[in-house]
């Protein structure tokens, strides 16, 4: 366990020192603030509450539909195809770790990055609420916490899909292009084929909305939770299966 933890910390350290990751985190922190300031400046024109109690949820929906998936593609490309292309993946195998521990450390680092993005977004939006004079009550705060936790689960499940797909690529650029096109196709497909909305993990990027809607049945929450959990485990296992047999 200590060896896996060391590998995970090493992966986190490598991510933190990448300039593109720093840009992601900086933008994730600044965007809610800039948007809140802009809405506040336009409040006399719009005649509406600039930053309402729903601001954290509104920003979460924007992030889970586009920004966090893009983060997932970028980090996955760096963790797998880029390291395979640059031959640095061999260095990880020189340590006294099994391939499973190496793979799991990389996936866990990606999940930690997703969690950190959500924490930054949640903190920034809540601060915006406080300065706008629309601070949340305890009940509203718990709803926000529930939504962000659900968003973390759906984003990690989505990341498992693209970690699996990345195992087929040796070029980070090729994977990025394919991932963006595939994600866009998966988001559009439910409008053309209604059944796709049930079986595509990309259709659950707004899954957090179910958890704060008072009329959603507990059975639906349970079934969708099981689907996301099972799909995440399935694609994690498939990704490891290919990773374990990959020559580097």
First CA to last CA: what distance?
A: 25 Å
Overall mean pLDDT stands at 85
* Total discrete domains: 1
Taking the sheet with the most strands, its summary is: none
Please estimate the helix content. over 70%
Structure classification: mainly alpha
Keyword list:
single chain; 248 residues; mainly alpha; globular
Commentary on this structure:
- Pfam families: ABC2_membrane_4.
- Keywords: Membrane, Transmembrane, Transmembrane helix.
- This is ABC transporter permease subunit.
- The chain crosses the membrane at residues 21-42, 62-81, 102-127, 147-165, 177-201, 221-243.
- The chain is mainly α.
- It has one domain (2-244).
- It has 12 helices and no strands.
- It is globular and about 60 Å long.
- Helix 1 packs across helix 7 (99-131), helix 2 (19-41) packs antiparallel against helix 4 and helix 4 (55-79) runs antiparallel to helix 7.
- It starts with a helix and ends with a helix.
């Amino acid at each position: 366990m200590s060896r896996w933890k060391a590998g995970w910390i090493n992966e986190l350290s490598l991510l933190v020192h990448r300039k593109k990751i720093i840009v992601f985190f900086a933008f994730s922190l600044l965007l809610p603030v800039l948007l809140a300031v802009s809405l506040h400046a336009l409040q006399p024109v719009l005649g509406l509450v600039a930053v309402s109690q729903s601001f954290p949820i509104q920003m979460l929906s924007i992030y889970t539909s586009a920004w966090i998936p893009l983060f997932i593609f970028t980090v996955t490309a760096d963790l797998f195809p880029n390291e395979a292309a640059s031959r640095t993946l061999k260095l990880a195998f020189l340590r006294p770790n099994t391939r499973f521990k190496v793979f799991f450390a990389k996936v866990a680092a990606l999940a930690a990055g997703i969690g950190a993005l959500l924490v930054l977004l949640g903190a920034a939006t809540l601060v915006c609420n406080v300065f706008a004079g629309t601070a949340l009550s305890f009940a509203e705060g718990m709803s926000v916490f529930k939504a962000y936790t659900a968003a973390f689960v759906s984003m990690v499940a989505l990341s498992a899909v693209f970690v699996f797909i990345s195992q087929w690529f040796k070029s980070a650029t090729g994977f990025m292009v394919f991932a963006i096109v595939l994600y866009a196709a998966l988001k559009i497909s439910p409008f053309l084929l209604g059944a796709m909305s049930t079986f595509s993990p990309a259709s659950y990027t707004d899954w957090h909305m179910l958890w704060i809607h008072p009329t959603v049945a507990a059975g639906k929450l349970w079934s969708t939770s099981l689907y996301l959990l099972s799909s995440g485990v399935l694609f994690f296992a498939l990704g490891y299966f290919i990773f374990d047999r990959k020559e580097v």
